[in-house]
Predict the structure.
Amino acid sequence: MTVGQTAIPETTHLGAFSMREVGKVYDPDGAKVVALDNCSVEIGANDFVALIGPSGCGKSTLLNIMAGFDHLTSGAMYLDGMPLSTVEKPAKPGPDRVVVFQHGALFPWMTVLDNVTYGLVRQGRMNKKEASEYAYQFLDKAGDLGKVAEYFPGQISSGMQRRVEFIRALINDPKIMLLDEPFRAMDTVTKARMHRYLLEMYELFPKAIMFVTHDIDEAILLSDAVVVMTTRPGKIKLRAEVNLPRPRTQKMITTKEFLVLKKDMLMAVHEEAQKAFERGERELA
Amino acid sequence: MGWKVHVRQYASALIGILRPIPPLAWVPLAILVFPGVEPSVIFVTFLVAFFATAINSLLGVRAIHEDYFRAAECLGAKPMDVLRDVVIPGALPSIFTGLQIAMGAAWFSLVAGEMIAAQYGLGFLIWESYNLVQFPTIIIGMVTLGMVGYASSAAIRIVGNRLMRWRQETIGVLK
């Protein structure tokens, strides 16, 4: 992206992400807690992949390693064919892999506009004025959000905040978006509206997405593939492709294909959840 | 100070030992070390104010949710950006709480210091009037203290509101 260019580009990064035999051991010299064991996941260009599993299975650890907040202890991760994170050279957080956090992390002391332009300005890609113009275009395209640009995050609804946070991530044109249970704390109705919104955004700005959740309906409805993790030590239990047509709608939740997928997922997840329950482990996540 | 782990550990230890020493216990040492009485009273007042502010700032930084640091890093912020855009604005409410407490404590130790050592000042005036049994002057001294104390708190509040417009507009505090 060149400085001064304010039109929203038609084609964006084609993020292809590859995770190969990734393992994570906490405290390798002492208690040796295995959080992740031999996890391999492929996320193709503009693929929407959901990661589900029981609480404490290491979903968040996996996402944190991808984001560069945590380090892997075996295996490697690649982004666009280049090594992203290895044992010797762990990844640092960066704008090519923007995270949307579970509890929301818009800076409450900045206006919506300053939040959205933050990445572009701090990376030195645009000056403040160019970034603002660009952000207004983005906000307006993303569901008429330009009208709240001057507000502080605390003055708008939680659903609106979450939408702004998506925009704050998307505007950086990341290679992959990492969504860490972004709708966890929402009520059913708000959640359904957010699903619709995220699907619209995905049609508008296709991106590789890694979506961590433990809501099976949500996982199937949104994604191209669902990856189920086992209980700790976290391994990949199965990967199911979701062949529902896009654009997706809420109504698809009741179609036969959906329900067949859901049944397989439910059995896989419940089996793991039962194991975790019987061991009586405290949640890690 | 609260941000970098090593600095935080050293700072906490140092403050942990120095802070419990009551301000008045500093006065004799200060008088011996500093030339004259006025600088030592100023020193003690400063010291008290400093601890109250420093501890609150430290706790304020520690209370900032980790996700804000992570979000800033994700968006490409460098360490100095994190300091300016996350650490300082995030800790500002606590810093200003600290300043309010510091202002109260500063008046307290100023008056106490003046009563013990000074030749002028409001504390000295009140003590002197006590010795001379001048009731009205004592009361005038106290009321004056109340008024300047209120004024100084209000000044801090106004500055704080200016700097934290987002807090006023979102949760309506500090009005």
In short: The radius of gyration of chain B is 20 Å. Chain B touches chain A through 25 residues (CB under 8 Å).
